[in-house]
């Protein structure tokens, strides 16, 4: 029996770890070939080696248009087409009170969290429009649904990802291209571990912390988000576009807090191994 993505080709940004790595593995299990686009060369090459002939690694700074375009072009050169673009790379970005947030930290947040999504959509559309098919997915967040679930810059950008998704979905529908976004709740990744404990490697304690706060009594794993991406990328979602799929065990039903605004002002960048 063929997989749900048999013969499809995907680019996954932030593909070396966390949600990106989980999604790349899931896509390959379902028959896809993937390009892992990430700044983490060591982990990206290891994962590509693990996935074998179905994967390639592209060192990619997602804020750099040339690098994003090159990742898309690699998919076409190596595998002949592009069927799924998953704009997933991210950082926590600027944290702390709004009055203490620096312009540099703010601009870095916008570059990684929003500019990168625009670039991914742009260069995916460049390939998908002529072939008249494709799926563009982007990682938003529950912070893109309500306030108090992420830092100010992160929250603003994740809301913007939702708006951009809906706007581009309307444009590209005429070309047979579906565009949607996923809003993960608390998920066990290095970035979440850093947020919860200050240690990106503290995955066990992070799992327990999320589980204890979950309305369902379980911790979200990268596989949970990967399965959502798989559904949206597959033909099962052929009538779904312009949609935000929230995967959060009812976390958004509980509202937000002032946690991130109470942190010391600063920038949480790629050193925390973004999801």
Keywords:
about 280 residues, alpha/beta, Rossmann fold, seven-stranded parallel sheet
Q: How are the elements arranged and paired?
A:
Layout: E1 9-13, H1 18-29, E2 33-38, H2 41-51, E3 55-59, H3 65-79, E4 84-87, E5 93-95, H4 103-131, E6 134-139, H5 152-172, E7 177-184, H6 190-197, H7 203-213, H8 222-233, E8 244-247, E9 266-268
Parallel strand pairs: 1-2, 1-4, 2-3, 4-6, 6-7, 7-8
Antiparallel strand pairs: 5-9
Helix pairs in contact: 1-8, 3-4, 4-5, 6-7
Strand order of the largest sheet: 3-2-1-4-6-7-8
Tell me the span between the first and last alpha carbons: 31 Å
Query: What is the count of β-strands?
Result: 9
Instruction: Predict the CATH topology.
Output: Rossmann fold
Look at the structure and give the CATH class: Alpha Beta
Contiguous uncertain segments of 5+ residues: none
Q: Characterize the main sheet.
A: 7 strands, parallel
Oligomer: single chain
Mean pLDDT, all residues = 93
Verbal overview:
With 275 residues, the chain is α/β, with parallel strands linked by helices. The chain has one domain (9-272): Rossmann fold (3-Layer(aba) Sandwich). 43% of the residues lie in helices and 16% in strands. It contains eight helices and nine strands. A seven-stranded parallel sheet has the order 3-2-1-4-6-7-8, with helices on both faces. The protein has a two-stranded antiparallel ribbon with strand order 5-9. Strand 1, helix 1 and strand 2 form a beta-alpha-beta unit. The protein is globular and about 50 Å long. It starts with 8 loop residues before the first strand and ends in a 7-residue tail after the last strand. The mean pLDDT is 93.
